[in-house]
Fold this sequence. Notes:
By secondary structure, this protein is of the alpha/beta class. Helix content is 32%, strand content 25%. The protein folds into two domains: 2-56, no CATH class; 67-405, 4-Layer Sandwich (Purple Acid Phosphatase, chain A, domain 2).
Amino acid sequence: MKKASKNLVTLLILITFLQLVACSHNNRLTESKEPESIADLEHTEISMLETEMETDIEPIPAEDSFATILSFGDALCHIPVFNAAYDSETDDYDFSYMFQYVTKYFQNSTVNIGNCETPMAGKERGYSGFPSFNTPEHLAIDLAELGVDIMTTANNHTLDQGFNGLTSTLQFLDEAGIAHVGSARTAEEQSTILFRDLNGINTAFLSYTYGTNGIPAPEGKEFCVNLMNEEFMLHQIEEAKAEGAELIVASMHWGNEYQTTPNEKQYQLAEFLIDHGVQLILGSHPHVLQPMERIKTENGKEGFVIFSQGNFFSNQRQENTRNTAIFNIEVKKSGETEEVTIEDVTYIPIYVSIKEPGAEHRYQLWDLNEIIRSYEAGEQIWTEEEYQLAVKERERCIKLIEPENE
């Protein structure tokens, strides 16, 4: 009651003040403009206050959103690679030592994606290498601990261990907490687009392969692997758009093995994808690095392509097969227009170090920039021979990825 009385007194004082002001202006306030009640006066005051607030407050500009996609090439597990990871004391495998020098790069990105080149069908099938791979499933655990978020599973080895091997691979990735795209256990799974929210950028991930080494999908299970059929790819792209994709990333298993330049078919497919809304293409399969390029199609669409990212790791010794890179793709979403663009692409040159059989840490991914920095800073970690190798192999990586800068 005291509060209500106080408000009433205040309103009465205000009414008296307004009446005096009206008189001082030669009665310009006519009866029709006087407040008919206290409620009318309160409404007038509130309207005036809202008008002043709308005038004084400036609109807050929308902020841009940024994300980093880290991408790497083929996780290609030959017999010597998993033999070197075997621990006889535990009767299990541990691949984590291979990633010692690159782990830090997986900690600061928004999402990490690579290609699972070899299937994981389980120990009971017998682990094997080329040409029909069966990789120890502990690799999935070690990739997850490295920080890998997504593995693509559409490649020419997808059906090495048949449909059961395919389903086991996806199950092991599920258990490790790694998402996957490119192969499927059911038609429903194939039709479900993989989405990730990258700092407010709704991103769809797609994956396709040129083939499966002549091994056909089982009858009635054609859905199990995504092939590079333009009609099918377009259907998935349109579905991704319909579900609100602001960025579409397509991983393509394509090209000629050991060839360091893209072929005509790769360019044709790249332009097809970009024309229909794919902004980023991540290539694999040649086992060597190929150039990265920003492409603008004849229809005015623009996208970024890394034609081949090389082997993330393997036992291959052919020329250029031990050169690879970890790619960082910077993505921006404009707060003003909501347009999503590929702002910048950088990379860390990597070399797959392979020591003699029986050597400790036989396979390791060497960070070439760090070796060079460390040696030149006088840190006694790397030998002069290792330093010279790092200088040579870094230069090779750069020439393969950016040949126009030679």
